[in-house]
Amino acid sequence: MGIHGKAYILALGLLTSQYSLLGYDASAHMIEETKNADWSGPMGIISSVALSTTFGWIFLVALTSIVTDIPYLLSPDNDAGGYAVAQALYAAFDRRYGSGVGGLVCVGVVAVGVFFAGAMCIASNSRMGYAFSRDRAMPLSRVWLRVSKNEVPLNVVWLSVVVAFVMALTSLGSQVAFQAMVSIATLGQYIAYALPIFFRVTTARRSFVPGPFHLGRYGVAVGWAAVLWVAFLTVLFSLPVAYPVAKDNFNYTPVAVGGVLLLSVGAWVVNARFWFQGPITNVDL
């Protein structure tokens, strides 16, 4: 019962870091609202990755150093009701200071971070929705294309909020369904990252015109490294996360992501290729 291979566990553990390193593309989605975008946009992405890696590493080292009794941390009978991170922090402060209040404060800091991450997702999704609507690639594009007097696409912002809320509600009824949607969002986003990089280092290798920020002669090598890493992650995200495999722990990631890809490609072949002309620019180049 369970997974005992250390290499397999290590590989699955990499997935957690990939969840936390998502979202740095928010700088790209907000690029039209950024000054000196061709330089500050890439710098925002690099800064996000660097800060997430640094502070994430510090947090993980501190957290793993206080993990002692793993079965108890996962038990629903502990003080945190089975929430391992909260229980580990609570127990560490309780052992050291005789009170777990410090652990609750740390959990509060994590909660604030999660809230800001959610706000980032809403901002990022709303800008993507606005861009798709501007390109007439979303149903009811005219509705989502509208902006307020402050030049904020409020309609699509609220659409993003409602969709995120509904998706979160599924976790109350089925963790399997919720995990499937999270898998689509995570793995699908990495695939979306990798596709333009792949075409940059293959078909557009000679025709690509770099902007002010570029990697010079190292760009192709870094691009291939990114593509291969995403290919590796795609395999990892599709592996079983528990044994024996059953309907309650089955990894639906390949099914969910494959279904979305089939629907997208099918929509393109059947309909969109006859009218979609690509992104619509609103500035003269």
TrEMBL record:
GO terms for molecular function: gamma-aminobutyric acid transmembrane transporter activity; L-alanine transmembrane transporter activity; L-glutamate transmembrane transporter activity; L-lysine transmembrane transporter activity. This is Amino-acid permease. It is a multi-pass membrane protein. It holds the Pfam family AA_permease_2. It comes from Aegilops tauschii subsp. strangulata (Goatgrass). One of its GO terms (cellular component) is membrane. InterPro entries: AA/rel_permease1 (IPR002293). The chain crosses the membrane at residues 45-67, 101-123, 152-170, 176-199, 220-243, 255-276. It is found in: Membrane. Keywords: Membrane, Transmembrane, Transmembrane helix, Transport. The keyword Transport applies.
